[in-house]
Amino acid sequence: MSIRATRREETRQKILEAARGILESGDFEEASTREIAKRAGVAEGTIFHHFSTKEELIISCVTTQLAEAIEKGLYTMDPEWCFVDKLMHVASYRFTQIGLHPTLWNVIMRQLTFAPRKGAVHDMMQRSGLIKAITDLIEEAQLSGELNPDLSPTLIRKSLMALFLFTIHEHMSTQNFDCEDMCATLRELIEVQTIGLWARKPECAA
């Protein structure tokens, strides 16, 4: 990487860190790009050299951390685990992030839920690698006979994401961000789908 590219990336990271700090405080909706720039130690116009809109900045904040959770989950996964166990392993890393920074994720979820640009949430999942990771696990399970191979992997993936988002909203509403509790909620929902709608009961670890 050239010196210029390195400096550009360093500036981008400073802006992301400043934005995350404001998100963590819960004041992102009121914060101006001028305030974000001040915290990052850059000119306000510099933000828009890296992020086209404030929404794009939020999505980039989420994408980076989501990608980290996915990478860790996939890297530490036992290939012998059943489909549900693999999904829960990846989800546990995500729930841990949310539990460590609940205020940050409350603001992020609110911002993304009401994002003015159609497809903003899908872009975040695509760029983080989440869509590919989940689709690969689904197709692997269909090949092994764990999931019905006649079902669309895309529809299964969309159903899974809906359950994941429901779990987050459910726990945000009660301010219960315990990782084990969140995993228990999601596992129950996924197993109902897997057993009742998608295939036979998986032989998961207790």
TrEMBL record:
GO terms for molecular function: DNA-binding transcription factor activity; transcription cis-regulatory region binding. Pfam families: TetR_N. Residues 9-69 form the HTH tetR-type domain. Residues 32-51 bind DNA. It comes from the Bacteria. PROSITE patterns: HTH_TETR_2. The keyword DNA-binding applies. This is TetR/AcrR family transcriptional regulator.
